[in-house]
Amino acid sequence: MATPHRTRPDQLTVEVVELIGEVVVRYHADYEEAAAGHALTGAQAKLLSLLSLGPLPMRKLARQLKCEPSNVTGIVDRLESRGLVERRPDPADRRVKVAAATDEGVRVAHDLREGLHFAREPLAALSAEERGTLRDLLRRMLDG
Prior knowledge:
The protein is mainly alpha-helical and 144 residues long.
């Protein structure tokens, strides 16, 4: 079966994709640095950040982190040993366990967000209107 002929992206599209890639690289580097400041790995910091928004079942955490449930179990174990996360019965189904950030975990997640320089500094150069436009364009890209 023949594959359809695909046109090459134009130079502007290539440049936009490269810039998005550079933003992602810088964001991840900043996130890893902020996590290390709390003696966390990037994966631990991301999981803690998700849980700071509310308790989640382990399977849902695995889906959101795009990893195996067994990996999430190990991450939760390490965060639990530090008092940042706890396991609780799911109020909707007591047979299911959810992971939840402790008060200390929520505080650390907040500190992590505050410690992300890249997330603040480059955006500070944009006006509120420009940041709103960028947000809207990124949402359109992700929804499309």
